[in-house]
Amino acid sequence: MLARGMDAAFVACINRSQEYIKSGKYTLLIEECNNLLSMDPNFYEAYYGRGEAYLRLGKYNEAYNDFNKVLQYSSSAEDKEAARKGLTKIENLSKPTEAEIKKLQERIPELKKVRERIAKYQVCVSAGDVYTVGLKTDGTVVATGRCNVRGWRYIIAIAAGDKHIVGLKADGTVVAAGSNKHDRCKVRGWRDIVAVAAGDEHTVGLKADGTVVAVGSNHFDQCNVSGWCDIVAITACGRHTIGLKANGRVVAVGYKGYFKYDRPCDVSDWRDIVAVATNNDYTVGLKVDGTVVATMKYNVSDWRDIVAIAAGLAHTVSLKADGTVVATGYEDNRCNVSGWRDIVAIAACGWHTIGLKSDGTVVAVGQNWARQCNVLKWRNIGPASEEQVLKWKQSLNWHAQGLCEYCGGKLSGLFIKKCLSCGKRIDVF
Ligand SMILES: [Zn+2]
Question: Domain 8-94 sits in which CATH superfamily?
């Protein structure tokens, strides 16, 4: 389709492109396609041409992005068919070969060890749409943005939603702060929770018995988790809730996708999954062999040695076993993570990317209009020791019984309480 009719400059550009295809001058072809797109951004065939050129130059991610644009925005069935073939070609090219699969299998025990080590760090950073949350080793929480988490104590895991933050306490109860629209913060009665997750307008809790509870907006069925069982991990972002089962299978509820080809909940054929991440229109799964699968959008089939994944609004991020990070997606600076080292946890949900370093500091790239990347001064982000968590649990139990949370002693006074054993003043408000 020639959208611009007989425009001379456009036609000249097309003619040059044809020449470059014939002569195999793909770098020049990319330039020509860029020209065409600057003249007519709706000329989707140019994305296809540029995609093919990138493919031949071995730039798979760029090619993948271009084919996706055709698939999502073009109204021509022929364009779409060609783009789909391009995507399949890239996926096949970057899939592990037979020989490589054997090597990947050998890496499984090592990757498992790394995943177990970083699991406790992964719950210490979380990214909301436009803010960032960090859990400190002393059980308190820091956050950019407006959610007030100042009084929180004894926290062992955090999750950031769109405008709310959720904290898991050492005794398996949950606290939440921020917008309570659709009752998304109604978690007061929750007990025996071992993990929390937060989507745009909902909150999810994994119970010790492998079942899942959810509150908040259920517009897209994202809270329909009452039938789930044998769940070992949960994730939520945007309008989805994803559950990882003990057998490595994945269950999903929520929004079915805006574009026909986004199928964020099409995860039922996934196998051997050890971690999941999701956003508004796609879902990513980490496999036991360190490779990654995704429902759509980004080419992640060439990723290897991965131990953690995160899903941004228009980018996908993963942490490698050696502590470096890779990212693909939207072309601003949110994917500029190639210089990161010693990373033990990652987070992404909106327009930015967060990395927790092994020394307890945090790095960030991406959009910063709400100061969501102002985390460079944060210190001591990370998990508390197991011993410490047990003490907190004890303190919370004493507190629940109306005793001194520091020593379990009896309290005197009505509004200004004081411990009769250790003498500490207890704030009851
Ligand atoms: Zn006391």
Answer: Tetratricopeptide repeat domain (1.25.40.10)
